[in-house]
Specification:
- With 293 residues, the protein is an alpha/beta fold.
- It is 42% helix and 23% strand.
- Strands 3, 4, 5, 6, 9, 10 and 11 form a 7-stranded mixed β-sheet that branches.
- The longest helix is centred in the N-terminal third of the chain and has 27 residues.
- It holds the Pfam family HTH_1.
- This is Probable hydrogen peroxide-inducible genes activator.
Length: 293
Amino acid sequence: MDVDDLHWFVVLAETEHVTDAAAELGISQPTLSRALARLEAQVGAPLFDRVNRRLQLNAYGRIMLEHARRALTEIRSATEHIAALRDPETGLVRLAFLHSQAGGFVPELLRRFRDDAPQVQFDLFQGAAHDIAERLADGESDLAITSPRPPGLPWRGLYVERLCLAVPRAHPFARRTRIRLADAGDEPFVGLAPGFGLRQLTDELCAEAGIDPPIVFEAMEIPTMEGLVAAGFGVAVVPVPRPQRAEPGAAYIPLTEAAAKRQIGLTWNDAREIPPAAARLIDFIIHNRHELS
């Protein structure tokens, strides 16, 4: 049903007078009469009784009036809600990010942005790179902080993480200051599950080093990997941690390979409209990325 027809019907039902209703609505009487005819045809019943050339709301009309008022209220509420979400001052940002960014970069980013835009709302998703790419493609997230870059999407590099080999504190490798990944070819590895960006990068590094180490456990988060390394389950390729984030039972040895790094970046699906609040966050991140990293 047409929203205008519903609105016109409500005014007509309240006045029960075509001339008065048409004047209040600023439309012609024939236009109003045609709208009423359309509505009655859709409903399948007359909504007014014609009494002495006047209209009188009947039982069907009273039912229609109750629901029309409710429908118009819901439509008005939805319109206001959408307008609020599209407001860069009060809108909604649907942000996806890697598990590994939850302990430092993303919380600090959100803290600073909320200082700048305190009324903006957030719908956050934390997950693996392949899940993030799917959410961008499906329109479930507006933008993402991820690695590696999803093919075909815009990309703004934020910072680079060097990769290292995490080993148990008592491991012979723990005394080294640097290490080639090939030296760990006979070690059991703890890795992330397939589909995670870091697992993809680790597999590529191992292939380039000419090794195919056994994966003894596939974790869902880097801290789990580091905890299992500390427990003696194996070694793992992980980003060099910030001092306060390091696992006490593990030693972190920088890898010598030039490719042993991953770039964390900002991306979004430019085939979909970016809501104003999300566009505002993109600009904020780009202009403040050096301070944030």
